[in-house]
């Protein structure tokens, strides 16, 4: 597979839009955040890289990133950032926004597992 092309390199059976839920889809959820959403790196590995029989090295080359950068994402040490979201969109499909939304939902879910104790502020 050649690198450096702006066209999609392959199509993942997973499209990131399928992971989004709309606000109010679960009563009591914070703005429609999924209940226990998957870590985005796991999704990329299990539904995009593995089914295509790609190694992490091959996938990293195709995405135009280092093996270390992709491995850190797949193992949950880093998250999906805008530049990576564009690369994932071009390679696997889905919009860059949907990849970022998946990361944001995961991050928010993690924080909401142990929310800070903050008093609501009111006008004086």
From TrEMBL:
Keywords: DNA-binding. One of its GO terms (molecular function) is DNA binding. It holds the Pfam family HTH_3. SMART domains: HTH_XRE. Residues 44-99 form the HTH cro/C1-type domain. NCBIfam families: antidote_HigA. This is Addiction module antidote protein, HigA family.
């Amino acid at each position: 597979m050649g690198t450096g092309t702006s066209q999609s390199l392959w199509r993942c059976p997973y499209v990131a839009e399928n992971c989004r839920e709309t606000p109010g889809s679960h009563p009591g959820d914070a703005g429609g955040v999924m209940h226990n959403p998957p870590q985005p790196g796991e999704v990329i590995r299990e539904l995009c890289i593995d089914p295509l029989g790609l190694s992490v090295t091959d996938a990293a080359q195709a995405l135009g990133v280092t093996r270390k950068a992709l491995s850190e994402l797949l193992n949950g040490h880093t998250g999906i950032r805008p530049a990576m979201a564009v690369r994932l969109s071009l390679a696997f499909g889905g919009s860059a926004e949907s990849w970022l939304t998946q990361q944001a939902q995961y991050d928010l879910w993690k924080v909401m597992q142990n929310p800070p104790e903050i008093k609501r502020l009111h006008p004086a």
